Amino acid sequence: MAIKLEPKNPTLYDLRGTSKQYLKQYKSAIEDFNEIIEINPEDKRGYFNRGWAKKQLGYLNDAILDYNKAIELDSQDSRVYKYRGYAKSTLGDIKGAIEDFDKAIGINSKDPHSFYNRGLARQKLGNIKEACNDWNKAAKLGNDEAYDFIKKYCE
Length: 155
Fold this sequence. Notes:
Low-confidence stretches: none
Organism: Psychroflexus lacisalsi
Order of helices and strands: HHHHHHHHH
Radius of gyration: 17 Å
Protein name: Tetratricopeptide repeat protein
Pfam families: TPR_11, TPR_8
Structural class: mainly alpha
Number of domains: 2
CATH architecture of the largest domain: Alpha Horseshoe
Shape: elongated
Keywords: Repeat, TPR repeat
Number of strands: 0
Helix content: over 70%
CATH topology of the largest domain: Serine Threonine Protein Phosphatase 5, Tetratricopeptide repeat
Number of helices: 9
CATH class of the largest domain: Mainly Alpha
InterPro entries: TPR-like_helical_dom_sf, TPR_rpt, Ycf3
Largest sheet: none
């Protein structure tokens, strides 16, 4: 991607890095998010987006570290808790994942993905009734994937 950026402008690095993520150029995107962090270590966008790119590459522990820093800088962004919860769940920290999905839902109770993923985590722990409640809420909020789990576990 041959875009010359204005030096010291984190917004432009964010735009380019995000564009690279859409193109699945995650390693190159991480370089742009590193620039944001170098320019302004207090800019949560760099940590959040770098964490997301690392998650896509399967570097889940590193992604969690970036999400932790993003939360330290802004504890009211539900997306960070949701993605950190997903990473924790994938690594087997189901209880930690549920705590993160709880926080995400506490901040944004209209996000179907947080309910859906919390349902998956609860199902892994054998809490089918609670999982079904989450999947029903996710479905009502527009998550079509939840219907498959409702049909399989809740009817």
